[in-house]
Design goal:
Elements: H1 39-53, H2 66-69, E1 77-82, E2 87-91, E3 97-98, H3 104-115, H4 117-124, H5 137-141, H6 152-159, H7 162-165, H8 175-190, E4 195-196, H9 198-205, H10 209-220, H11 228-239, E5 241-243, H12 245-256, H13 271-284, H14 290-296, E6 301-303, E7 308-313, E8 317-322, H15 333-346
Antiparallel strand pairs: 1-2, 1-8, 3-5, 4-5, 6-7, 7-8
Length: 362
């Protein structure tokens, strides 16, 4: 099927009889959310949001990962990519940085696509922990253990399923094939071949004792699905992929476009998978501050400690903002402010509505 054949209808029905794709209540319904404004308006509003917030001095660059500690706190960039592939960028758009936790929803999408919606939720969970992203306590106090793929425990469990996605056994053999699932999938989301920042990877491999501990704790509860050290290494590598704000905006726009990359035209995942991933992003994409984020922005989002924030406006496009200074929860201060301004100015908040201007009929 031509991946562009669904443009007028919105949603491509899930394949009939495929238990991985068909929800219990049938295929995902068609959804229409309008369009972004004209190019001049989008470009002008992007510049206004960037100019308004790029000099905000709040927040601190992450220091617990030495390779991130040297980031220039003045760096700031933002990008908007529409579902038609139109791109708007401003600021330090040529600077690349490690993707970190922004990788989580996209690896989740690959796993959900391969293993199915229901099984993925059973294995990984979908509810917020209410605790910090690297919390060990969250593993112990919740019966489900992983709880949510947007925090580290759930993300490590998610990545531990990539060997199964690659058709491998769980004994740790064939880790490179599992890695190929991750890098090939995230590259398809970005529309270009992504590569690991080897310096970041080496640095994080030497400092990821907490994540290794989380992986072994989860393994003791049967919630890591391959060798825990292999799972931690795969997770560390995925967080070390090098990206820029344009890459992230294209990745977000692919989720906004029902799983079709709007730049390459390639279908990466199904629309049903996108819907589930966006739901999980909404519950915990900005960790314990996700409720505040939805209150202010009204869109699914995901942050990372390198300073990136990605946001998805379903049916309209993807937003990415990047600036290294973080708040206490590990979210980019300027990235949140720029995104909030754009959501309001572009009319993206999915919870916003206005009365129907047409009076009811007789």
């Amino acid at each position: 099927m031509d991946v562009r054949a669904d443009r007028s209808g919105g949603s491509v029905p899930d394949p009939v009889g495929d238990p991985r794709s068909v929800a219990p209540d049938g295929p995902v319904a068609r959804v229409s959310t309008g369009h972004l404004p004209d190019d001049a308006t989008v470009g002008g509003l992007l510049r206004a949001a960037y100019d308004r917030h790029r000099h905000v001095a709040d927040g601190d660059v992450a220091t617990y990962i030495p390779q991130l500690a040297g980031a220039d706190p003045a760096w700031c960039a933002a990008s908007v990519v529409s579902v038609s592939g139109r791109a708007f960028e401003i600021g330090d758009v040529g600077v690349r940085f490690s993707i970190q936790s922004v990788s989580k929803p996209f690896v989740l999408a690959l796993v959900v696509e391969a293993l199915g919606h229901d099984r993925s939720r059973d294995l990984l969970g979908a509810n917020a922990t209410g605790l910090p992203f690297n919390s060990v306590m969250a593993v112990e106090v919740h019966d489900h253990r992983t709880m949510n793929p947007m925090v580290n425990a759930g993300a490590i469990a998610t990545t531990s399923l990539t060997p199964e996605v690659a058709g491998l056994s769980r004994d740790g053999s064939g880790a490179e094939a599992a890695w190929a699932v991750v890098v090939d999938g995230l590259s398809a989301f970005a529309g270009r071949r992504l590569a690991v920042d080897e310096d970041v990877y080496a640095c994080e491999s030497g400092t990821n004792l907490r994540n290794r501990g989380i992986a072994h704790l989860l393994h003791s509860y049967g919630r890591v699905h391959c060798d825990p050290d292999v799972a931690t290494d795969l997770y560390t590598r995925q967080c070390s992929l090098s990206v820029d704000v344009h890459d992230l905006a294209v990745m977000a726009a692919t989720l906004a476009d029902g799983g079709v990359n709007p730049v390459t035209g390639e279908r990466v995942v199904s629309d049903g998978t996108c819907a589930r991933v966006l739901a999980v992003m909404a519950t915990a994409g900005l960790y314990e501050l996700s409720g505040d984020w939805l209150w202010e922005v009204g869109l699914p989002g995901k942050s990372g400690v390198s300073g990136a924030v990605v946001t998805v406006a379903p049916g309209k496009g993807g937003l990415a903002a990047w600036s290294p200074p973080l708040d206490a929860a590990g979210n980019s201060v300027r990235g949140q402010l720029i995104t909030r301004s754009l959501s309001r100015a572009l009319g993206l908040n999915v919870f916003a509505s206005a009365p129907d201007p047409h009076p009811p009929g007789p």
